[in-house]
TrEMBL record:
This is Cytidine deaminase. The keyword Signal does not apply. GO terms for molecular function: cytidine deaminase activity; zinc ion binding. InterPro entries: CMP_dCMP_dom, Cyt/Deoxycyt_deaminase, Cyt_deam_tetra, Cytidine_deaminase-like. Zn(2+) binds at residues 53, 88, 91. GO terms for biological process: nucleobase-containing small molecule metabolic process; pyrimidine-containing compound metabolic process. It comes from Duganella guangzhouensis.
């Protein structure tokens, strides 16, 4: 699957977003090394703090289907932003741990602006499992 096809998957995922509160729809497409694509969309809730972003939805769905860090080839995220969408801090933390440092991340918008980065580049000096002292 090429980048444009994966962007199209993310755009399709975006249309499934449940956003009665923000009306801001985000889509994600997470490609696995064996060629499967997991869709993610943001899913909101009247209890605002329970809203889940598109990026985390995609990763959690992939993990629920048995995929794990090392199994992913590419993440694409799309939203209706002026420039390429910028994942929130919580998602950067999750993308890094579940996707791994080197995971290529393509951020885009409905106009086709593209920013290509990696999971680690999106969260410098990250907190991680290595920081947790074993008791
Ligand atoms: O990268 C992003 C940024 C925001 N949102 C969602 C969270 C919330 O539902 C809405 C507004 O913040 O957009 C995402 O899903 N991904």
């Amino acid at each position: 699957m090429n980048k444009q096809e994966l962007i199209a998957e993310a755009a399709a995922a975006r249309l499934k977003a449940y956003t009665p509160y923000s009306n801001f729809k985000v889509g994600a497409a997470l490609l696995t090394n064996d060629g499967k694509v997991f869709h993610g969309c943001n899913v909101e809730n009247a209890s605002y703090g329970l809203c889940n972003c598109a990026e985390r939805t995609a990763f959690f769905s992939a993990f629920a289907h048995g995929y794990k860090q090392g199994d992913f080839a590419h993440l694409v995220v799309i939203g209706e932003t002026d420039g390429p969408i910028a994942p929130c801090g919580a998602c950067r933390q999750v993308i890094l741990e579940l996707g791994g440092n080197e995971l290529p991340v393509l951020l885009t918008n409905l106009k086709g602006d593209i920013f290509e980065t990696t999971a680690a580049a999106q969260l410098p000096n990250a907190f991680g499992g290595q920081d947790l002292k074993k008791q």
